[in-house]
Structure prediction request, 828 residues.
Amino acid sequence: VLLGPEGAGKSRIAAEAAARLAARGTTVTRTAATAAAAGLPFAALADLLPADLQQAASPLELMRLTARRLREAASRHGLVLVVDDAHLLDDASTALVTHLLRSGAARGLLVVRGEAAPEALAPLVADGSCEQVRVDPLGHEELAALCGAVLGAPVEGATLHRLEAMSGGNLLYLRELLGAWAQEGALREERGVWRAAGRPEPGRRLSEVVERRFARLEPAVRTAVETTALVGAVEVPLLERLVGLEAVLAAERARLLVLDADGRDDGGDDARDAGRDDARDAGHGSRRLRALLPHPLYAQVLRAATPQLAARVHRRALAGALAATGCRRRDDVLRLAVLRLDAGEVPGEDVLLAAARAATRLFDAPLAVRLTAAAAAGGGFEARLACADALNAAGRTEEAEVLLAALHEEAAGEPRRRGRVVLVRAANLVGGFGRWQQAEALVRGARGELAARRAGGRPDHEPDHEPDREPDREPDREPDRELDDELAALGGMTVLSAGRPQQALDAVEPLLAGPERSRRSRLRALLVAMSAWGQVGRGGTAVAVGHRLLADRAPQQELPAVFETALVGLCYAYGTTGRIAEAEELARTRYAAALDQRAPDLRTLWALALGQAGTLRGDLQHAQEHLSEAALLLRHDRSLLGVHSLAWCLGCLAEVAALRGDGPAARAALDEACAVTPEPCFIAPRETARAWVAWVEGSTDAAERAVLEVAAAARERGAAAVESYALHQAARLGRPARVAARLEELAGLVDGDLSAAHAAHARALLAGDADRLEAAAREYERLGVWLDAAESAARAAALHGAAGRRAGAVRAARRSAELAARCPGASS
Prediction:
């Protein structure tokens, strides 16, 4: 008995099994039960009955005659009876199937929708006559593999997540979705990665299937399900206010709504637009009971089917019910603002800006743009600055720069206002355009104006059109000092983007030392320091601070983008110190969370981190998949990471392609990485990639020169961990004599075990010592650096063989092969 939900693939499995049995000579008889024929005795099995029914004096005799007839018709391999939708069999047909199976006249393959075999078939299960096999919806990995196989290339994470959310792993729904998206042109392949453009709809055929489920509803029940579909999830008390308890109960009994208290939503766009709710009631500590649609597709189809005027009426009514509660929860203001905008109303500027801050906490940059644009329509300075900030976060950098340039001029003579504009404008220039030199000049100018203001004795608390503080922010201590500190942290970020980590630390570490600094200033400084510490070789400091950061919820709530970017610094530090497994686990966990949040900025951030971890490990296939996804997203949206991160990502991608032996792909990635930064800067992976591209193109001498140049540039910038990595590449390429001594020095300067492993490997290569090379391979394997371990073991095998030590050569060669198997496609 094949059990499972509709569309899971049970009938297809049964059909495939029947075809294979028939090909082997087994007699196969197929039939399907239907709801329409469920009231007619033996209707589903009519073709199996004897032609002359007069021979059967009773139903029992009819079953015996049928069994005899089937035995006579069976081949020597026997007969298999396949019954689709067996849960719809009439009682007489069920009794006949039971008799055929128990008498041995046939073996059976029964397809049943649901969680268990129908009661009439239960005796077959109880006495062991048949086995129940569940056919569950596809899991994430299965769905990803299937989509990749069908489309011929990997599917980027958000598209895959959307397919998984909308289909629920249901094969029928998945097939219809892919077919509809492909037909509409909404699914496109970009540089070897499939990606859905925009928010594609389910398609006409699938929509019709869903709409039939919601036909002919009572008006109040229809209102309940349409309202829930529009906003994704509605608290039951609010829904009761709108339609009454009886309508909610009726919808639940009909399984048109499900009640949920765990904080999930249906994955719909409007659900997100309505804001994410805290899981617990404010001040009560109890979880809220919410109504949702039973399947994500239902919500999307109903939203599309609800008339526009009806949708406005539903939203206006829900906004009124929510306002009546007093909007006690953290993000209720966001939900209220969106509901009113969607209902054709315009909330006040204060409400819109508070809602925009809530949207920013949820990494919903497009929604923040929508809210701030509505507020900016009134022409106020604060609203226009908030709008520019939202445009920058949404990756609409050109629009943001136009608005910020105007605000910068407007704020002339007002140092605090101008400083706040520079905080946004400099970040936009660096991230959106790669113009770090212009950004650095703006920061210096703004800090100079603030210093002149203080030197002139102007009162620190002079009214300067400061915006209202958020309730969860600490009170101002010295507004000018806090702003200057934030500008100093921004200056550190600017020089870090240019590839000068030690200079960045010199700028931001003083901000981390004093308790008098504001939390916002310290967090912005920490963002810079976490990445810089790893590059200069102080990964242990980054790890210790990162662990404290993970234990503190306040930064995540106040500046979530800063918090996440600082965690990427922790991930990088894990890598430089040789804690590869921890880097992968952190990146994998945060990537999954970004998918759940539908936050493309975060997904880009963590796809890049996963790609870097895979590169370091030597898992080149997965590294290429993650880096290709990150590069694709960064080309479309540079809001959180920026141009320099795209160059960093493409440099990693070039190295991976080269190590896989794909010279053209490596060259293309490197050329693009060089083209995206308009001003001179040192991007470590891009510079290292030059060496590997030269190597895969056949010039080992050029590759060696390139990595030695990278090491020299890294040393000049104080990037000891980068220097260690580059010098080790030189050792791999055949120049251990040039680098072994310096690697030994760096092993004492760079935190963690990885730099020491590089030094030991270089010494073993220089000495030509097979035993030490095997020891180096074991150490790399312990750290999880598989490709370097495989190379070291391979070199050991060659040296053992040259010395006539056959056993040692076989042992090391076998180990190298086992390690290389973890790095499919590598040709280093």
Q: What stands out?
A: The first helix runs from residue 10 to 23.
